[in-house]
Design goal:
single chain; 431 residues; alpha/beta; Lyase, Ornithine Decarboxylase, Chain A, domain 1; 2 domains; 8-stranded parallel β-barrel; 24% strand; binds ligand LLP
């Protein structure tokens, strides 16, 4: 069910290349991306807007996976880029991303981050809280620069996803609340500021969401607020940014959103609301992260130790784990996997895939049907392209794996594997 093929040797292919050969060439754990899939995902969003004749900006949420090569692919696709930190911004600048196409998010942007954004003339800052408004106003005045600003609001909507990745509910650390008038107060502070070009509203209701009606509901909540602002202040927005959060398929239990019909549904809703309010159609902005990178990436591991507890469970340990994929430990996220070197063999056993961290919770997959498993088999875990490498960490002082891009039948190393030298790089002696 994953969009990968199997070659004559029975090996899993990614982007037309043998994944077992890639594992040998670059070592494991290894993240491998099919770049054409990244491009296809970008185009599904961008082309639908174009076909509908709607002015839109689709920004890739680079938190899902940021590296110089990834950001360059997004640049080649003509998309916009969402960054949430100095580090993501720095990466984008190094990748030669056009600064006017960068949008800056974050619930606690530092003065240094705001300065960096202003100095590089980035396209838009999405303001999150009252302190930030104050900082932006005074910095823009000092620099004597104007800037496009959106306001992030919390629509008060619960989305059906893991609690940790819900963001649209009223009790959220993100954005200005609509229910208590804080959003309107913030709007008034920015609307008449000579340095702020206040463009409109932003909301992001959460991540890995499948119910399109949640996004429709969020849109209608924004329009309720816009109706008030129109009536009280004569305001009409230039931009409506509806965030990201579109779910992808991790396992057979996930029926992902089909992006083209979804975008059409969203545009139709905005058009309906716009007509009811008798205002011009604003630009629609979206910020998919996972939907762009998630299913384009797989992780390859080598099977090591195996432990059988008769009648209870078969553990199969691989050479990575929560250091390269934190999501199972953090969100109980589920994944599917195959043995890349036995991809055509029938399944005959049920195993649980353990990572190698000193932590019982470091389990990548529980109860995975596989063919007979032997040491040195290559395990390929699907849909690891988003929030895998980007949430990788150094627990137990593991080095972060390499990243390889595959396109047009060629493989290219785009992030080097870390070395132990990298691990101790910042350590200073105490002797
Ligand atoms: N826009 C904003 C303002 C966001 O906060 C996020 C994600 C996105 C866009 C992109 O959401 P996406 O399309 O990728 O769902 N680490 C978690 C996901 C956290 C997402 C945080 N914000 C995970 O691994 O599931």
């Amino acid at each position: 069910n994953h969009p990968f093929t199997v070659n004559e040797q029975g090996h899993l292919e990614i982007g037309g290349l043998d994944s077992v050969t890639l594992a040998k060439k670059y070592g494991t754990p290894l993240y491998v991306y099919d770049v054409q899939m990244i491009r296809d995902n970008c185009r599904a969003f961008v082309n639908t807007f174009q076909n509908m004749g709607v002015t839109a900006k689709v920004a890739y949420a680079s938190k899902a996976f940021s590296s110089i090569a990834m950001v360059q692919v997004i640049k080649q696709e003509g998309m916009y880029l969402d960054v949430v930190s100095e580090g993501e911004l720095y990466t984008a600048l190094h990748a030669g991303y056009p600064t006017e196409k960068i949008h800056f998010h974050g619930n606690n942007k530092s003065i240094a981050e705001l300065r960096m954004a202003i100095e590089h003339n980035i396209g838009c800052i999405v303001v999150d809280n009252f302190q930030e408004i104050k900082h932006i106003r005074s910095l823009l005045k000092t620099y004597d620069k104007q800037m496009d600003v959106l306001m992030r609001v919390t629509p008060g909507i619960e989305s059906k996803t893991h609690h940790y990745i819900m963001t649209g509910n009223e009790d959220s650390k993100f954005g200005f609340n609509l229910q208590n008038g804080q959003a309107e107060t913030a709007f008034l502070q920015m609307h008449n500021d000579p340095y702020i070009r206040f463009q409109g509203l932003h909301c992001h209701i959460g991540s890995q969401i499948f119910e399109t009606d949640r996004f429709i509901l969020a849109t209608s909540v924004l329009f309720q607020e816009l109706r008030t602002w129109k009536e009280r202040h004569g305001y009409t927005p230039n931009v409506l940014n509806l965030g990201g959060g579109y779910g992808i398929r991790y396992t057979k239990d996930d029926a992902p959103i089909s992006y083209a019909p979804f975008v059409e549904e969203l545009v139709n809703e905005v058009q309906k609301q716009v007509e009811a309010l008798a205002i011009p159609m604003p630009e629609i902005w979206l910020e998919p992260g996972r939907a762009i990178a998630g299913n384009a990436g797989i992780t390859l591991y080598t099977v090591g130790a195996m432990k059988e507890i008769p009648g209870i469970r078969n553990y199969v340990a691989v050479d990575g784990g929560m250091t390269d994929n934190l999501r199972p430990a953090l969100y109980q996220a589920k994944y599917e996997a195959v043995l890349a070197n036995k991809a055509a063999a029938p399944t005959e056993t049920n195993v649980s895939i353990a990572g190698k961290c000193c932590e019982s919770g470091d389990m990548l997959i529980w109860d995975l049907p596989l063919p007979h498993v032997s040491q040195n088999d290559i395990l390929a875990v699907f849909s690891t392209g988003a929030y895998g490498y980007s949430m990788a960490n150094h627990y137990n002082r593991f080095a972060k794996p390499a990243v390889v891009f595959v396109e047009n039948g060629e493989d290219k190393l785009v992030v080097q594997r870390e070395t132990y030298q990298d691990i101790i790089r910042h350590d200073l002696s105490y002797e």
